[in-house]
Amino acid sequence: MLKELFAAYEELAAKADAAFQRVAEEHRDLVRCRLRCAECCHAIFGLFLIESVYLKHHFEQLDAQTRQAVLQNAAKADRALADLERSLKEHLDDAQMQAQVLAHERIRCPLLSDQDECLLYPVRPITCRVYGIPVTAGGQTFVCGQTEFERGQPYPTFDLDAVYRDLHRLSKEVLKSVGCEDEERASLLLSVAKSIKLPLEDLIRLPR
């Protein structure tokens, strides 16, 4: 069953790649993505279950030495995320302050090598794939700070909300495939660090 779900996920990833390519070709002077930029590799975002399971599957195919180094990096990222969570709790009643904290926080992805290259680049999450072009999520437009896109201008954007709905649907299918009826688990987002650290069975049955 996972094989079919992975194939469906890869179709979504391919659409994201195609969207990025179109914008990059139409606005070559504005997109600044390049080898070893690594700007997106310090952004904070969560993965839906289907993404976590998919990433974990491919992580396990890396050699043992590389996996060990990544897991050490994941432990550091987890500690940084825990510190961030504590900072956010200090501003529970101030959404603006929370947004400012998140906007300025940078946490290195555990999959980023010492040479600033993604160790799982071909299977990286969709958020990573579209980071360098304008995207919409939650009614807002976001763009990488390294680009030359100007606020208020009518650029083509990638609809992340539509992708999130598909990822949520696929995540529910993952749960169904193992007989888990807790569909709300499909809404729980996990960090890259936890996605690669946890055993596959724990990823799927992680309590809400």
Description:
With 208 residues, the chain is mainly alpha-helical. It has one domain (2-202). Helix content is 51%, strand content 4%. It contains eight helices and three strands; from the N terminus they run αααααβββααα. A three-stranded mixed β-sheet has the order 2-1-3. The longest helix is centred in the middle third of the chain and has 26 residues, at 64-89. The model has no long low-confidence stretch (mean pLDDT 88).
Question: What is the secondary structure topology, with strand pairs?
Answer:
Blueprint: H1 2-26, H2 49-59, H3 64-89, H4 95-104, H5 126-129, E1 135-137, E2 140-142, E3 158-159, H6 160-177, H7 192-197, H8 200-205
Parallel strand pairs: 1-3
Antiparallel strand pairs: 1-2
Helix pairs in contact: 1-6
Provide tags for this entry.
208 residues; mainly alpha; three-stranded mixed β-sheet; 8 helices; globular
Which segments are poorly predicted (pLDDT under 50) over 5 or more consecutive residues? Answer: none
- What is the strand tally? 3
Question: Please, how many domains?
Answer: 1
Instruction: Give the H and E element order.
Output: HHHHHEEEHHH
| Shape descriptor | globular
Distance between the termini: 23 Å
Strand residue content: under 5%
Average predicted local confidence, pLDDT: 88
Query: Order of strands across the biggest sheet?
Result: 2-1-3
Can you give me a brief rundown of this structure?
By secondary structure, the protein is mostly helical. The chain contains eight helices and three strands, in the order αααααβββααα.
